[in-house]
Amino acid sequence: MSRFAFSPLPFVTSACLALACAALPAHGEEIGSVNTNFRITGSDRVVVEAYDDPDVAGVTCFVSRARTGGIKGTLGIAEDPTEASIACRQVGPIKFAGPVKRQADVFTERMSFIFKTLHVVRIADAKRNTLVYLTYSDRVVSGSAKNSVSAVPLPAGTTIPVR
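RE: above sequence
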């Protein structure tokens, strides 16, 4: 056998790692927070996070939501409340990475150890040339009807490439 025998293992490992990273939920950049309920082991707070739309350069969504403190919050096993608010804005020139679906989950983030997820859905309103962003949370057993919506009208001459 040659010293330089080909082994597909590094390529398979790299491909699996790339797929695993692509499947990870987006994490927002925390840009601020306020404490709402003091606890010796860590306060409850409202955080504001910025999420850049991965398919639409120039659009950022700002999501505010409650985070549970205490020991469970520190360990990442607390269940955060379902309330969230969203404001999406054009923060630079808008450029599409390619055609977008009429409706797509663009961000998801876990709100409890296993059962609850925060979603941000982008809805392309081609008739009004506007991107609409909806935030809501769901659970394995039952979701929440609590939601918030924001819209980003596109500049004249920029159209939404819908697939």
